[in-house]
Design a protein that fits this description.
Layout: E1 2-4, H1 5-8, H2 19-28, E2 32-39, E3 47-58, E4 61-70, E5 77-81, E6 91-95, E7 110-112, E8 115-117, E9 120-121, H3 151-154, E10 159-165, H4 176-187, E11 200-204, E12 210-213, E13 221-228, H5 237-245, H6 253-265, E14 269-273, E15 281-286, E16 292-294, E17 300-302, E18 308-311, E19 317-320, E20 324-325, E21 338-344, H7 347-357, H8 362-368, H9 376-391, E22 394-397, E23 400-402, E24 411-415, H10 416-423, H11 429-438, E25 442-446, E26 450-454, H12 465-476, H13 497-511, E27 515-516, E28 522-523, H14 526-531, E29 543-544, E30 555-556, H15 561-573, E31 579-589, E32 599-609, H16 626-639, E33 645-648, E34 655-665, E35 668-676, H17 678-683, E36 691-697, H18 699-704, E37 720-729, H19 735-746, E38 750-759, E39 768-777, H20 786-804, E40 807-808
Parallel strand pairs: 11-22, 12-15, 27-31
Antiparallel strand pairs: 1-10, 2-10, 3-4, 3-6, 4-5, 6-9, 7-8, 13-21, 13-22, 13-23, 14-21, 15-18, 16-17, 18-19, 19-20, 24-26, 25-26, 28-30, 29-30, 31-32, 32-36, 33-34, 34-35, 35-36, 37-39, 37-40, 38-39
Family: Belongs to the phenylalanyl-tRNA synthetase beta subunit family. Type 1 subfamily.
Pfam families: B3_4, B5, FDX-ACB, tRNA_bind, tRNA_synthFbeta
Keywords: Aminoacyl-tRNA synthetase, ATP-binding, Cytoplasm, Ligase, Magnesium, Metal-binding, Nucleotide-binding, Protein biosynthesis, RNA-binding, tRNA-binding
């Protein structure tokens, strides 16, 4: 938003406040001034006012003119000019030989197609006062020829332009009066509003034209005035300079007035040629589906039934509401009767229309950020006043004001104690009331605790108490609020066992070479069919989403396995082979439909595939197997002091039946571990890869975790070692059952046990497997004799034979 410092002072007197100081105050108040642009002008004395006495077509170039120009000397000079508006008796700035133009060009006499030009008739861009190069600059007819040009002659003023970067919620400051309101509050100066009264003549406006709003939700208010007998022409220099200084192009006196009032009050307006409106009617309606409409930029646009349009009595579209008018009703040089529109359109509707059409205008930019609903008629009258002053004509009696929906102002309660709590400083109630009042907030009631405040219609961004406190803080000036360190004691640490266990799990898995992944908590329900558990609890207890991101993410996940397999697929697609991932994430079960929220469970899952280690000359690559993953999980449980059993299982269809185990802790199933079934791997496009994964609940693990440390003194007496070789029927007895029986029978002298050999071969009967254990015996009280060790060792052998039917090798 560009704001002219000189224009700003029409509404608020800045006194001795410099532009730089004002910019700093505005920035601290939330209106960030991103830059200052000085507009200064210096002109050579060799640039004077000249009058064209005669114009002839150049003998060698039809697009050039040979002009005789009076510059106040005895003899006119000859100047060659190519401007299309070159005409007799036009007065214009003339640069004589020796003049230096603002762009650095030095003017000298020169032959142009054989004709000597003794100077240069200047356009505005050549004088550096605008970008207009449509023709030579036309000066007032009463200026004496030969007068050196000056700021007064050219209608320009030295100025400073403030470039303000507004946040989207501050649509009220998209005008000079809006910024002036902020300045008046900051400087404690009165704010002056521009006059909008004018003589009303002729017929009542209701007898000339009518307005109908068919969709009041999208257009809550529409006002219009009628002017007859206007004369379209160039704008006076003051108006032209005002709009050009802030980046807009001058068109004609009527269009420039609508732009001027928009820049002044923030209310976009649009002027229609009244005689081009069928039935002299305005109908605010939605566009027809696939309707086509040509806008003022001569572009045909395809519309739909969500776009709000302005139509005439034949329901012919004449403008896209709040965005751009139509080519079929634009103001032209022959226009004499005008219908001037000033309306309020729904910000969301205008935003959608602008994005849909790829068409952003100064009007749509303001409507998108909301304008002042209650000042629509004020801006209309202001623009009407200026048009009849600058373009002549008469204004009809009254205005059309369609306001179908009642407006109720918002009231917000403000507590003084809350202001102190938020800002960290106590501000007296008189100062608070003054700040709010000068910003336009009306204090309705005053209580001991605070105020009840009515929010002005131009501040739709203020809806809560905290918004009022922000207004107070920014105007009071944040620099006036002292910096304070937080008060109070630092709270003591609250123990959280689940968080601590999760941290240990993460640390342990990372230390074993796994990488953590984080997947979405949503999944495609079809992945359960790929895993073969679509009808199996708890996987089938699905929680659907009402508004999913995509169809593939339409449900909360009941397992983390599809996400991990997706990670494997993605990495293998990028030629990454040796993979070790883990995830600590939540799954969701709808166990009870009467509950508003589903059950949430945190799962620990991991996946391994590829080689055990990278390529090396020192050792051969071996593929990862079941025991690699089992060892990782065992290390984790050992770190948490949790005793677990890995029992063979077939209840998980996605695991290979020969390489699957259920994790059991104190008789409670915790989860599963094993190799992905080849069919399931195929369903996930993983081919014949050997993939091992585990998934188990965190909560039961937390319950069994113990961080207690016990001291064990170094043994005083030596240990005795014996080997135990046994033959066990394959797939009939769990190794954990054998180890548990050995441990119980050998207690208390059995100190340690380790399986160090597993054998299947010709010396073992078919369907059997051989295990060899190393048993370590030790007493804490004495050195054991061979007889004492043999007695216990024999008891273990007898127990294995009698209880499990195991043979001794």
């Amino acid at each position: 938003m560009k704001v002219s410092y000189r224009w700003l002072q029409d509404y608020v007197e800045c006194g001795d406040t410099s532009v730089a100081e004002l910019a700093d105050r505005l920035t601290m108040a939330g209106l960030e001034v991103e830059g200052l642009e000085e507009r200064t002008y210096r002109f050579s004395e060799r640039i004077v006012v000249g009058e064209i006495l005669d114009v002839q077509i150049h003998p060698e170039a039809a697009e050039l003119y040979v002009c005789q120009v009076d510059i106040g000397e005895t003899t006119p000079i000859t100047v060659v000019c190519g401007a299309p508006n070159t005409a007799v008796h036009v007065k214009s700035p003339v640069a004589l030989p020796g003049a230096e133009l603002p762009g650095g060009l030095n003017v000298r006499a020169a032959k142009i197609r054989g004709v000597t030009s003794q100077g240069m008739i200047c356009a505005e861009d050549e004088l550096g006062i605008s970008d207009d190069h449509r023709g030579i600059m036309v000066l007032a007819a009463d200026i004496s020829v030969g007068t050196p040009i000056s700021h007064e002659i050219l209608g320009i003023e030295e100025d400073t332009i403030l470039e303000i970067g507004l946040t989207p919620n501050r649509g009220d400051c998209l005008s000079h009066v809006g910024v002036a309101r902020e300045v008046a509050t900051l400087l404690a100066r009165p704010l002056t509003f521009p006059a909008n009264d004018y003589p009303e003549e002729g017929q009542p406006v209701a007898e000339i034209a009518t307005v109908t709003i068919e969709d009041p939700e999208l257009c809550p208010r529409y006002t219009a005035s009628i002017m007859t007998g206007v004369k379209i022409g160039p704008s006076p220099l003051w108006l032209k300079r005002r709009v050009e200084h802030v980046g807009m192009r001058s068109i004609n006196n009527v269009v420039d007035v609508t732009n001027f009032v928009m820049l002044e009050l923030g209310q976009p307006l649009h002027a229609f040629d009244l005689d081009m409106l069928a039935g002299r009617q305005i109908i605010v309606r939605r566009a027809h589906q696939d309707e086509r409409f040509i806008t003022l930029d001569e572009t045909e646009r395809q519309l739909d039934d969500q776009i709000l349009m302005i139509a005439d009595g034949h329901r012919r579209s004449v403008g896209i509401a709040g965005v751009m008018g139509g080519l079929n009703s634009e103001i032209s040089d022959t226009t004499t009767n005008i219908l001037l529109e000033s309306a309020y359109f729904s910000p969301s509707s205008i935003r959608k229309t602008s994005k849909k059409l790829g068409l952003s205008t100064e009007a749509s930019y303001r409507f998108e950020r909301s304008i002042d609903l209650l000042k629509v008629d004020y801006a209309l009258r202001r623009a009407t006043k200026l048009i009849i002053e600058l373009a002549g004509g008469k204004a009809a009696q009254g205005i059309i004001d369609c306001f179908p929906l009642a407006y109720t102002p918002l009231n917000v309660s403000l507590r003084l104690s809350r202001v102190t709590d938020i800002l960290g400083i106590q501000i007296d109630r008189e100062t608070i009331q003054h700040i709010l009042s000068t910003l336009g907030f009306r204090v309705l009631t005053t209580e001991e605790q605070g105020f009840t405040v009515e929010v002005p219609s131009y501040r739709p961004d203020v809806t809560r108490e905290i918004d009022l406190i922000e207004e107070i803080g920014r105007i009071y000036n944040y620099d006036n609020i002292p910096t304070q360190f937080p008060s109070g004691e630092i709270p003591s640490k609250i123990d959280n066992l689940a968080r601590d266990v999760e941290g240990i799990v993460r640390e342990t898995l990372l230390s074993q070479g796994l990488y953590e992944v984080i997947n979405y908590s949503f999944f495609d329900v079809s992945s359960l069919e790929k895993l073969g558990v679509a009808a199996q609890a708890p996987y089938k207890q699905i929680v659907p989403l009402k508004n999913p991101l995509t169809v593939e993410q339409g449900n909360l996940r009941t397992t983390t396995i599809p996400g991990l397999l997706g990670n494997v697929f993605l990495n293998k697609s990028n030629r990454v082979e040796n993979l070790r991932f883990f995830e600590i994430g939540k799954v969701f079960y709808q166990t009870d439909t009467s509950k508003r929220l589903p059950d949430e469970h945190t799962m620990i899952s991991a996946v391994l595939t590829g080689a055990r280690s990278g390529a090396s000359w020192a050792y051969a690559q071996t593929p990862i197997d079941f025991y690699d993953l089992k060892g990782i999980v065992e290390n984790l449980f050992e770190r948490l002091n949790v005793s677990a059993i890995f029992a063979r299982t077939t209840q998980y269809p996605f695991l290979h039946p020969g390489e699957a185990a259920e994790i059991i802790v104190h008789g409670k199933p915790l989860g599963c571990l094993g190799r992905i079934h080849p069919k399931v791997a195929g369903h996930f496009d993983l081919g014949d890869e050997r993939i091992y994964l585990c998934e188990f609940y965190l909560a039961p693990l937390v319950e069994e975790t113990s961080f207690k440390k016990t001291f064990q003194p170094l043994p005083k007496f030596p240990a005795v070692f014996r080997d135990l070789a046994i033959v066990v029927p394959a797939n009939a007895i769990l190794a954990s059952e054998i180890e548990q029986l050995i441990q119980e029978t050998g207690a208390p002298l059995l100190d340690r046990m380790m399986l160090f050999d597993r054998y299947v071969g010709p010396q073992i009967a078919d369907g059997h497997v051989g295990f060899t254990y190393s048993l370590q015996y030790r007493s804490l009280e004495k050195t054991l004799t061979d007889a004492e060790v043999s007695e216990v060792h024999q008891c273990i052998i007898d127990a294995l034979r009698s209880h499990l039917g195991i043979q001794i090798r």
